[in-house]
Amino acid sequence: MSMNRHPIEQEELMAYLDGELPADQATKALSHLELCPGCQSLVADFRGISQGLMAWEVEVPEAGISSEIETEFTERFQPREGVKVGWPRLKNTLMTSRWVWVGALATACVAVGLTLMLTNRNRNDDHSTLISEGMPTSDNSATYPSMASIEQYLIPDRNAEIALARSAAPQSISGDAKVLVLGWRGYETAIEGKNGFVCVVERSWTSPFNSAQFWNPKVRVPVCFNPAAAQSILPLTIARTEMVLAGLSKAQMIDRIKVGFEKKELPVPEPGAMCYMMSRAGHLSDALGHYVPHLMFYFPLTDKSSWGADLPDSPVTLNPQFQGGPEPITEFVISVSKWSDGTVAPAM
């Protein structure tokens, strides 16, 4: 993976999945993954391999492996200079070294591949057969080229959506907040608030327009806007939602948003506009899951250097949600150490 095209390397993606990246680097990983289908696919592959390995049970054969397979292994994997590594040592190393784990996994995959090749060479390729018959395959890198049916974006249980929206912020804030839920015609008020905050579960179309997740019906993003953001950022979420439900294309949405700002029909961020995103139950994307608890701050277009965003050891990251889009907004992200329920979040 070239650093000229990707700000994070494969080993950093693996560290992200293992929860070993510092908060600022994890936030940068989120910013890149939101816009990079290739890295999203790679993360999905890593997770699929990891899950498969965890579920893999190896049976010890009564007799040794066939001489044909043994010959293949001898030729391909004979240790150089007579170095031998026993299974107990390998098992201990797997617990501490990611690269050894990957190497062992690769060796295991080759072993399985050799077994299948040598015992079933004339078998038809199941994946090709599925494709030729027009049936779905088990590809981890799901794509969402167009909008799904509206039913897939709705949450049938209204109370469940209210609870999910409130999980964006600590109960001391969300308990007195106004709560919106998504209906067939757009967002509706489910509970009136008392403190000026508004909690809502955003859907995939609040992502950047060039995001591979823009039409992902599984996306659920609990957000709790403070009063300033409820007046100046929430209207953008509502506007995008109404345009989507009206059947507008991305190009039409972009044009309408541009006109809305030109005519001052859409607001720019008010001073102090921010929101809480501290839910451990959200789903930001297929690659990221619920990510890490964080706060977001909104400004009219400004240079990220004004906040020291993305600098080494800085806790502030520039969020890509509005970057390159029609909204003249700059958004900064700062991760926090606890979920909205007060429990400590995993170190990232």
Give an account of the 3D structure.
The chain is an alpha+beta fold. It folds into two domains: 58-132, no CATH class; 146-335, no CATH class. Helices cover 37% and strands 12% of the residues. The longest helix is centred in the first third of the chain and has 22 residues, at 98-119. 30% of the residues are buried. The model is unreliable at 76-102 and 108-140 (pLDDT under 50).
Total helix count?
12
Strand content: 5-15%
Q: On the 0-100 scale, what is the average pLDDT?
A: 76
Broad structural category: alpha+beta
Low-confidence stretches: 76-102, 108-140
- Number of β-strand runs: 8
The proportion of residues forming helix, as a percent range, comes to 25-40%
Strand ordering within the main sheet: 2-1-3-4-5-6-8-7
Number of domains: 2
The outline comes out as globular
Main pleated sheet:
8 strands, mixed
Helix-strand sequence: HHHHHHHHHEEEEHHHEEEE
- Give the distance, in angstroms, between the N- and C-terminal Cα atoms: 22 Å
Question: In angstroms, what is the radius of gyration?
Answer: 24 Å
Structure described in brief:
The chain is an alpha+beta fold. The protein is built from twelve helices and eight strands. The two termini are 22 Å apart.
Keywords:
2 domains, globular, 348 residues
Describe the SSE topology.
Elements: H1 10-17, H2 23-33, H3 37-55, H4 67-77, H5 87-94, H6 98-119, H7 126-132, H8 158-166, H9 171-174, E1 178-183, E2 186-191, E3 198-202, E4 221-225, H10 227-232, H11 234-245, H12 250-262, E5 274-277, E6 294-300, E7 316-318, E8 329-335
